[in-house]
Amino acid sequence: MWGQLSASLMNLQLPEGSELLVGILFAVALFLGGRFLMGRLALDAPTPRSSVSPRRTREEPIPARRRASPVGVFLRGAQSQPEPFLARVVDRSINGLSIELDEKPGVPLGAVLTVRPCSAAEEFPWVEVRMQEIRHHKGTWELECPFVHVPPWSVRMFFG
Q1: pTM for the whole thing?
Q2: What 3-state DSSP class applies to 127?
């Protein structure tokens, strides 16, 4: 069978200069076949489950989180608390901070808080964050706080 097919292909008479056209058609067929096959494989592959908040859409990139040694910070409510209290930044990303407290904060979810590293000078700006989520974890309270306005890198680097 294969012998007959190869013999008939060898005896095939093509017009002069058609080799280029045959090559282009072959390349297009390979390209389209590969696209079809890869699309089928992508549809069959299981989608990974995300451990991130369900509010995030699939198209949004997930910012890298940096968990390093805790950084001491002063934390206060934007209007409600004139005196800051001590807390720790335990996790950070380009979009916000994860802040750990020893006591439950007396502010509601969605409240705007201000935070400043303990090691920073008095002139260092207070950074506004919004308390989006709170959870009790091993005797401490952990706040998930996205930045209200993302500060420049020169400010974010003080948070670890």
Answers
A1: 0.57
A2: strand
